[in-house]
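Hey, I'm writing a tutorial for new members on how sequence and structure tokens pair up, and I'd like a real worked example in the thread rather than a made-up one. If someone can provide the structure for the chain below, I'll link this post from the tutorial.
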Amino acid sequence: MSNEYRQLLNPETVLSIPLKKTDPVELYLPLRKLVASKYSESDAQKVESVLQTLNKCRRDMVERRGDLSLPMQRDCLIHYFKCLCMVESLFTSLSSDADPIIFVWYDAFNPKHEDGVSSQRNGIQLERAAVVFNLGAICSQIAASCDHTTALGRHLAMEAFKVAANFFFQLWKAFAPKNVVSATLDLTPLFAEFLHHVFSAQASELELQQQLNNNDASYALQQHRCALSFMSVYKLYDRAYELIPNDSAARKHVDSFDQTWVTHLYQKVTFFQEEARQRQSSILPESERPAVFSRVQSCALDHDAECVTEILVKGICRRWILGRAKFYLQQKYVDLILSEYNPFKLMKDGKLVAYPWDMPPPYPTDSAILSSSLSSSSLSDILAFLPLKKTEPLNLYESLRSYFVLKYSESVAKRVEGLLQMLHKLRNQMLREDLSLPLRGDCLIHYFKCLCMIEPFFPMNASPNPPIFVWYSAINPQRNSSQHNIHLEKASVLFNLAAVCTHIALSCDHTTIQGHCLAVDALNDALNWFSVLRLESKKACGTADLSEKYTRTGNNEIVSLKFKFPRPQCDVSSSPGYPAAAFDPLISGPLAKILVQSTAPQYFGAKMKTCPSDVTGQFLLGYCKAHTLLQGVCEAPCLDLLSEVSPVKIKDGNLVANATLEAALENMSLQETSDGYIYITWGVTAPTTN
């Protein structure tokens, strides 16, 4: 690599942008007053927690910014964006004579300019656009702050720049407030497009650097890949550079912030254009290209120990995304009601709870919707339909740690010890017989993520004592499969995830709309887990229940099961406005309308397009919109490893276990409330019931 190119890749020359600043504004009091007056005091109490958390997030965003780390600022902004989407519908109801909510935002590049401030009365469009801008900005700062001299730092920076580019793409295409006359220049579509291309180019440049260090392909194929990448990076920088110098106002605005930006982009364009031209002859003709390109592996497993943490982190990015890509939008309703890791909750009394953004999981969850109408014989039928696979205990920690010591060194083993400890504890929890269905599902998902991280190190040929995974057949427990193959472990976990989702579906009260729709949503999750299982089981020769034939049979039975559920006893189709009775938590629950919209549109036909008239239903619809957008934009699991609420965290280049969650796993217990409902309480107090 030339000295000139090394200079271009100098992390000090990486571009990032500051966050927009804003003035404080009180949101809780006027919005609560609005809900109480437009709906009722009871409705205001149901959404009060969301309004309080909304207000806290914005206050912390303004007042605590200097005290928060970059990942914590990201967590706060994401939480605030979800709350903001939930209350969006309220702003259309604010009358002109009501106390105004005035949002004031300053230009990120030149806040002191005469046009560097924008304000809008009840301006939810301005607020949303500014928050999306800041989400992109904070991701660019996270990327710039990473240690670009290490493989892990470069990977984290690349993923953070990709997410930043995605946020500015959303700002460019969907959130730029075109109808806000007073919007500052940084929120215009021109600047959003410019920043999208800048951060896409920087992410692609880091990926190109990985390719240049990679030797896992033939020389000709390696040169072909690099030639295409140089051309791609050149086009991205060129598009970004074209947008600014040709617009005098934009050029002046950028220069007022940093006069080196335009020069920097010009140097990038010139360098990559020349490199792409020189490498043009390395591009292979169509007939000589492989049918499928393997993904770039920045470090081979036989390379130095510096790559170990990067390989683990990239394992979760590649394998988890590949596994979840088809259905990551499916689980929002199951999570909203049942997951101990979702800070947004719908309780059995119809109340919406939004826990503070800086409160770590687990969160108390109300599972009263489950097992509400099933007899003991029905529960037996559930277990017979798709029983859970059983496994033998296994000390993964000792086996994996000894491998890292032998293959690399004691210091490397210490760097990844937190991950190995969490992996071992999650597997032990998975074996417990007293776990509730939701908690078992949470545990399996986190364990599967950890398996994805360590998968690249299998098979452990260098280890004298590799782990032996023993799993029993779900349909014939006398038969088992015993292998060193991690794909057997992953396939078995996927099988149990499908089984748990099926058990949840069959445990719901199908006589209510809420229970029925939650059941259908859970079955959709089960189908998707089976879809991933079919891919994974091809890599593992396990028991018959993991075979292609059995999984297809299970898939067909789940599809047919959805049509066997009894119809809910509540008829809400008689009114296009969806009367309040339809949202009675004892009849259907406020989530029912949203659930039915996504899972059973045939029930109500065209009337499903009607917005819910219930305030809780409107909040839930906003939550679903935010969830869908953030899942599509922020899908970079490695960035979640920087969060304070992640079960396993990246700290100083090491993988460490979250102390709070570790303690919760140790102290997990059952609690029974006065009304007979059972809660799994990870060392926290169960919610009180009326």
